[in-house]
Amino acid sequence: MNNETILTDDAFLVSETDEKGIITFANDRFCEIAGYTLEELMGKPHNIVRHKDMPKAAFKDLWTTVKKGEVWTGYVKNATKEGGYYWVYATVFPFESCNGNPGYLSCRRKASQQEIDKATALYKTLD
Ligand SMILES: Cc1cc2nc3c(=O)[nH]c(=O)nc-3n(C[C@H](O)[C@H](O)[C@H](O)COP(=O)(O)O)c2cc1C
User: Fold this and answer.
1) Whose CA is nearest to atom 24 of ligand 1?
2) Going by CA atoms, what residue is nearest to atom 25 of ligand 1?
């Protein structure tokens, strides 16, 4: 299926996870683009939106980076509930949540067609 959602320039998709990658928050725009209600996302592993074209190496890099307390940025192709997909440029921040445990926050904006083409070519070379 080739059902791509192109984000608008002002779209800002936010989600938060606990230290295990379980979703603890998503903003309205994230829910809308992904095609889920907030209730459907809360408490689920964030790989609920994983697209099969994404290489494992990208997420390995994401987790290694944020667990060190550093900020990760990268291009991500996500799957929608209906079987479509959308590309984003994501920035993932580690933070300390109120209970003292680590939490992670991802802010996503539109990726340009040029950025998507580059990421697609790169990801084909990764496992
Ligand atoms: C804050 C945060 C946001 C994430 N956002 C996404 C996302 O939008 N899409 C995605 O596929 N994985 C995202 N991940 C990575 C997932 O936790 C997971 O590692 C990835 O989907 C690969 O699935 P797997 O670990 O089961 O192989 C995010 C992780 C964190 C910490």
Assistant:
1) 47
2) 47
Pocket of ligand 1 (CB under 6 A): 15, 17, 21, 46-47, 49-50, 54, 56, 59, 62, 66, 76, 78, 92, 104-106
Domain parsing of the chain, residue ranges: 13-124
Run of H or E residues at 91:
strand 85-96
Q: State pLDDT tens for residues 87-115.
A: 999 999 999 988 899 999 999 999 999 99
pLDDT tens by residue, 4-46: 999 999 999 999 999 999 999 999 999 999 999 999 999 999 9
Bridging pattern class, strands 23-26 and 13-17 = antiparallel
Pair of tokens at residue 39: 């209730």
Write down the architecture of domain 13-124 according to CATH.
Answer: 2-Layer Sandwich (3.30)
Do residues 68 and 78 make contact, with C-beta atoms less than 8 angstroms apart?
A: no
Ligand 1 midpoint to CA 47 (Å): 5
